[in-house]
Every structure is written in structure tokens, then in C-alpha cells.
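testing teh design pipeline on a random one, pls ignore if ur not involved
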């Protein structure tokens, strides 16, 4: 084999790992350990005795990138992925060109062993997308004999901060490659709070950003060449980031990711959700939120490799699912006991302080998913036509029964709150049936909950107070 050094990873001490790209015989990469004094772009020959020898020639880095670009474009699959849901497939066909470009970018980085940092939101949607990318990339790397350098980071916040950018620069500083590193962002960050992070990273990394959150004005990511958001293509948040990422992967891989697609739709309460992926969704929610319960104390990050180890172990995943369901049931029972109820004209209002019932050390269940489940549970218990307000930290989450939200639009209550309390409210968003308000300080929670309750009661008719 004759190859070119495309990437070098500097280990601790003096050890270096060389990633060698063979362009003569298809496009494969190899890993070689040792203290070869080689630089990027150096051509090497594989020795019969093993290892590599310097061939004494060099290849221009630009030339190598050009060859890799051509090779990656030629591997993009022409046909668009079809799910069978006409609405989804229509949006997919509009995005195909953009998704192909992102797919080509990802596989080019893989071909040159450049570091790829994947940051994904820690819910069923974000982690489902990351898991789909992991399986697709693993399959692609195996079938093309590539050595890749993926780094997976689970994102707890909703923005890509300056600190995130600094951390990504630091961890990829160990690599010296012919190509820039790649940052892949899945299911978060479409807001101006990400602008600082984007400013720091955009000249040092290529960036592929896959999201489905409503686009906020002044968000700097819109300028990025590989920012893709379903809202730009006539879609909305129902087309989830996990689905978007899975569909993008279909441009270079045929690996079945339908479970993750279904899980992402269920996890984000998409209108496109079916029964498909229900267990995967519950499992991903649990695995990504209560890391301590699964992996022991001090565990902060979870990678798709770890998710895969659980998913592919039937006994372990069944056991975890049962445990997760039991924990959810407990939290719902406690929630039902702790809510405050108000009767309105032809409707109900339920208010819950989630901090009171959620255990301190555990992040499970996630508040958004919990609020939706609690609303379903109230309905099952005969409390129909309910508006639910759940306060947690500096957030007020709202959910309305589907029948009732045809008559009462939650965005009206949110707008009213923003108008009345511009100094207290940092932001908010959602739609007719579900939404959230972010407060500037969590200490405002009680006062703002009371105001929101007042607005809803005024809107839906102040019946004789029947508080209990
Ligand atoms: Mn999402």
C-alpha cells in the first residue's frame, strides 16, 4: 500500500498516531503507531515486515483534499429516502440537495480521518439522531476500511456557548490534519445565545448544523453554509432533528434507522409520531437523563457506543425500560397528588411545582416529556379539558388538552406574559397546545406562575373559585 499521511494524533508524551490515506486503491485509511518523524502530506510505503516507511515524497494537502472531495461526492446516493409519510417525504425531497452536501462533508472528513465532534441534545430526539449517525458512519467506515476520529458529546443546554467552542478547539488541538475538524450540531442551538460560540469556532472548524427549532432573528448560524433547518424548507418542528439526521445519513448509508426516527418523533411529540420506536424513545430518554443510575456516580456524558451496548443487549434494555417506566409512574402518581386544581368555565387548570416531586440528584424524567405525560394521565383520571402549568427551575411549561387548544391559544397567554413582564421574562416559545416561558431568574418562579395562572383564569372564565 502506498499512502499519504492525512492526519496525526498527538498522544500524551511523544507517542503519535498516524492516519494514512491510501488514494491509489480506492479510498481507505490506516492507522499506524510509532515515532515515525513524518509530517502531514508525506507519502509512505507499507513495509512487508509491517509498519510504514517514508517514501521521500510529498503530496500537496490541497491536492489530497481535492481527491477526497471528488471521491466523497461520487459516493452520495442519488435516490431520496422515502418514509411513506407523504408530508415528511415532501419536505425531505426539498432538502435533499442540502443534506447531500452535508453527507459529502462528513464522509470526506472520515476519509481523511479528520476529527469529527458531534454534539447532540440530551433527549430522545437529539440522541436518536446521534445514534443514527453513529450506526451509519460505523457501517460506512467498515465497508470502506476507514479509520475515523469521532468525538461524541451530549449537550445539556440549548445553545452552543463560547465555552463549548473553546472545549471543542482544545480537544481537537491534539490532531494535526490536512482537513479542518468538523463540528456536527444536532437538535439544539438555533438562538442568539449560540452566536458567541459560532464566532469562536467558525474559522477553525467546518460546521454541519441540523435543527428543527423555530429560527430566532439574529441567530448567527443562518450564515453557515451547512446549517439546515426544516423550517427553511416548508417544514416545522414536527420534522424532528433525529429524523433529519437519519435522513441525511441515507445519502451515504443504507443502515436502517427507522427505530431512531420513530423515537425522535415520539420524544418530541411530533404530529408524525406513530407507535414505531416507542421503546427506543423511552430507553433513550432514560439512558440520556439518569446517567448515574445506569453508569454510576460522576458520569456526565453518554456516547452512542454506550447507547448501542444497551440497545443491543435485550435483557439489559428490557430491565432498564421496566425501571424507567416504574420511575415515570412514581413521578406521575406524585404529580397527581401534588397538583393544585382550579375549575374554570368548561375547563380545568392544573398547576404543579415539579421541583417538589423530582428527586434532587436525578434528571429523570425530563420536565417537557413529563408534563405531556401528566396531561394524558389527568385526562385518563377524568380531568378533561385541562390546561397544565408545570414550573421547574426558571421555566414555566404549559400543555393544553388537544380539544381545548382549538379554543384557547397558548401563544396568547405567552405573549401577554411577555408584554406584562419584559424585565422578568427572558424568552419563550411554542405553539397553540404546548409551550414554555423562560424566566430570567428561577427565584421569580412563584410570582410568575401566579401571574400566568391569573391570565389563564381570566381568559377561560373565572368560575367561582374551586381550589383544593
Ligand atoms: Mn428536538
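output:
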Amino acid at each position: 500500500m502506498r499512502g499519504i499521511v492525512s492526519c496525526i494524533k498527538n498522544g500524551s508524551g511523544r507517542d503519535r498516531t498516524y492516519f494514512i490515506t491510501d488514494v491509489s486503491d480506492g479510498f481507505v485509511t490506516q492507522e499506524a503507531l510509532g515515532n515515525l518523524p513524518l509530517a502531514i502530506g508525506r507519502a509512505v510505503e507499507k513495509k512487508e515486515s509491517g509498519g510504514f516507511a517514508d517514501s521521500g515524497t510529498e503530496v500537496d494537502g490541497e491536492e489530497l483534499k481535492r481527491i477526497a472531495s471528488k471521491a466523497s461526492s461520487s459516493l452520495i446516493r442519488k435516490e431520496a429516502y422515502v418514509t411513506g409519510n407523504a408530508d415528511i417525504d415532501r419536505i425531505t425531497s426539498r432538502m435533499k440537495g442540502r443534506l447531500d452536501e452535508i453527507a459529502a462533508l462528513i464522509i470526506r472528513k472520515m476519509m481523511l480521518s479528520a476529527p469529527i465532534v458531534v454534539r447532540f441534545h440530551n433527549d430522545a430526539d437529539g440522541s436518536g439522531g446521534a445514534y443514527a449517525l453513529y450506526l451509519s458512519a460505523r457501517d460506512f467506515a467498515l465497508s470502506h476500511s476507514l479509520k475515523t476520529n469521532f468525538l461524541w458529546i451530549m449537550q445539556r443546554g440549548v445553545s452552543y456557548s463560547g465555552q463549548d467552542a473553546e472545549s471543542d478547539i482544545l480537544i481537537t488541538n491534539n490532531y494535526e490534519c490536512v482537513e479542518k475538524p468538523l463540528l456536527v450540531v444536532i437538535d439544539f442551538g438555533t438562538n442568539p445565545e449560540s452566536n458567541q460560540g459560532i464566532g469562536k469556532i467558525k474559522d477553525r472548524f467546518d460546521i454541519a448544523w441540523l435543527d428543527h427549532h423555530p429560527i430566532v432573528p439574529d441567530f448567527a448560524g443562518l450564515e453557515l453554509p451547512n446549517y439546515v433547518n426544516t423550517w427553511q424548507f416548508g417544514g416545522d418542528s414536527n420534522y424532528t432533528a433525529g429524523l433529519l439526521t437519519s435522513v441525511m445519513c441515507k445519502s451515504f448509508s443504507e443502515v436502517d434507522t427507522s427505530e431512531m426516527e420513530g423515537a425522535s418523533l415520539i420524544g418530541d411529540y411530533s404530529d408524525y409520531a406513530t407507535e414505531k420506536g416507542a421503546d427506543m424513545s423511552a430507553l433513550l430518554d432514560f439512558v440520556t437523563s439518569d446517567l448515574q443510575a445506569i453508569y454510576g456516580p460522576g458520569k456526565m456524558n453518554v456516547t452512542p457506543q454506550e447507547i448501542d451496548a444497551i440497545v443491543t443487549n435485550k435483557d439489559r434494555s428490557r430491565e432498564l425500560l421496566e425501571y424507567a417506566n416504574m420511575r415515570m409512574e412514581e413521578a406521575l402518581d406524585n404529580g397527581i397528588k401534588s397538583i393544585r386544581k382550579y375549575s374554570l368555565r368548561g375547563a380545568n387548570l392544573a398547576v404543579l411545582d415539579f421541583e417538589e416531586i423530582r428527586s434532587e440528584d436525578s434528571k429523570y424524567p425530563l420536565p417537557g416529556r413529563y408534563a405531556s405525560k401528566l396531561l394524558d394521565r389527568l385526562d385518563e383520571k377524568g380531568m378533561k379539558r385541562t390546561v397544565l402549568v408545570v414550573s421547574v427551575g426558571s421555566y414555566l411549561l404549559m400543555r393544553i388538552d388537544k380539544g381545548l387548544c382549538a379554543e384557547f391559544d397558548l401563544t396568547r397567554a405567552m405573549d401577554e406574559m411577555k408584554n406584562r413582564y419584559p424585565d422578568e421574562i427572558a424568552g419563550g416559545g411554542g405553539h397553540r397546545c404546548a409551550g414554555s416561558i423562560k424566566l430570567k431568574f428561577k427565584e421569580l418562579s412563584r410570582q410568575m406562575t401566579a401571574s400566568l395562572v391569573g391570565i389563564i383564569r381570566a381568559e377561560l372564565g373565572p368560575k367561582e373559585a374551586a381550589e383544593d
